[in-house]
Design a protein that fits this description.
Belongs to the class-II aminoacyl-tRNA synthetase family. It is built from 26 helices and 19 strands. By secondary structure, it is an alpha+beta fold. The relative contact order is 0.05.
Amino acid sequence: MAELLLELLSEEIPARMQARAAEDLKRLLGAEIAPLLAGREPRVSHGPRRLALVAEVEPAVETPGREERGPRVGAPEQAIEGFLRKHGATRAALRQEGAFWVLSRPGERIEARALVARAVPAVLRAFPWPKSMRWGRGGGFAWVRPLKRILCLLDGAVVPFDLRQGDDDAHGLRSGDETEGHRIMAPGAFAVRSAAEYVEGLRARKVIVEAEERARIIREGVARLAAAEGFEVVPDEGLLAEVAGLVEWPVPLLGRIDDAFMDLPPEVLRTTMRVNQRYFALRTPEGRAAPRFALVANVAARDGGAAIVAGNERVLRARLADARFFWDQDRKERLESRLPKLDGVVFHAGLGSLGERVRRLERLARIIALHVGADPALAARAARLAKADLASGMVGEFPELQGVMGRYYALHDGEDARVAEAIAAHYRPVGPNDAVPDEPVAIAVALADKLDQLVGFFAIGEKPTGSGDPFALRRAALGVIRIVRENGLRLPLFPILEAARRGIERSLEEARRERERAAGRERAVIVVPNPDHEILREVRPETVEVYDFLTERLRVQLRAEGMRHDVVSAVLGVVRDDDLNRLLRRADAVRRFLESEDGANLLVAYRRAANILRIEERKDGHAYDTGYERHLLKAPEEEALAEALETAARRVELDLEAEDFERAMDNLAALRAPVDAFFDRVTVNDPAPELRRNRLRLLARLRAVMDAVADFSRIEG
């Protein structure tokens, strides 16, 4: 085996691009040199200035010979010549096999050195950076930042290549055996001969190659410094990964926050430090903001970092002074006074302004409140104020604080605490690890926000596709599902989705009329139903489409949780239950039934009956979906099955109406013995045509009784 070492040294790579770039390098170069890898996975590392790859490769490999089928015998001469040119072969290499010419291509020996020398330049020139730049006179090569060196070794020897394309390409950067250490603490190039020497040589020159090790040093170092002061670090894995991508030699340090700023909301302190300076926030054991912050330097200073800390404290002081200004100015106005500004902010060209959306949320939250045990007036008030902080100075500076600042401003204005908490919580959950709101008013507003978003964008045709979801509708749907599931809500989705749809129609119609009034050309009024009071009489196809999208997201979530999503599909195949928790209870009962011995055996019998019916219905050209005739039940086993089916059908119907899904499954399980006896002793395809038809109808009745609970044909396995 031979060791391949590749390093690409450049100016600073944005931290957010490093991990993806390392994976792209492994994927793209791995595909090019796959014959040499023999299934082994290359290892990659990344840092602020470098991407590196190490792989164990075969020095040379022999590819197996293969045959290529060519044109038909008697094909035009041009077709044969074209086939030979494509494969670089001569006519003598062709042989006739049946009606075709066949070209036998012998295997070839691939030298690792030659393949790597061809592959690396091709990969680098086509590298998929999200953003790249060109530099120098030629400008023929693009990279994320100017590329300085290429280290490429195979068993300690340089693999020679360069990046030239034509004689006048200014980027003729050549591969070599040198890299560089820390830009400040160990400048200059040095040569290496192996991956181990590369890692240790860089460590000796103040560069830690592995991002995971840099992150560990930062995590442990910051935690140690915080603990020494009696504090703990506010967890932030995203910031940790980013900072690990900014430094090659991490040196954690601790700074002080001026007491004058400690009365700012802790979220403001954390966001200011994180967004502007990439500092880590600390807190007391009780959870209050600590008057300290952690930073990570990229050098080990001779004074222990005192000057670095002092400089960062000055910068933070200025940043927090800006935050103080916004905090003080915003509280001079009531939150509600900012609402008129939202009328001038476009939410989406097809869905009107933010002000129009707020009025929709106010109506929808009032409706949802009735179903989740919330005070409708408080829910409407919270929805009315939920977006008002978007017009504040603080949220304008730090969009990450939307909702959070609305809560503080609402409390300052003397709003009900439940209204304030709903304003803060209505965006949640924003990710899979984020908690869902659990207070009824907050639940009502959060659901209104997400359902209006879903229904609105579906209404204007802005639906997610396989390649994109620009309006985060999948996240909104999963948010609805998590809120409903984790709070155990019995929420009728169809009436609420219809109310959301009609609210959007009403909102857009009102906006159109207002525009026409302003332009002096108002037309006749079109009355749009009031979604607050109209009784739901039908569910429009547009509403069903949103419901289907929600249930599809539910299946995705169940699959991610390792649960049987096929059971949910089976239940949905029978009824579009708009109560998701009832749907899941029914699916769970079906799942437990199928895991029982009776359920597993009855599923086998169901499939046997379904297969027989499918074959015979195709053969006879019609479906056997009419009732069987009792006087044609001749065998005791078919009489017993018919009696069991009618008993089970009556009981299952009552059980489903009572939502006693476990008892419904027990009544289905009672069919196992008569079904087994029927298949053991009765011939379905009896020579007598009338008996055959009647027995097929009896099997169709079995299928129908079971399908009343779930579409068992959708069960996998």
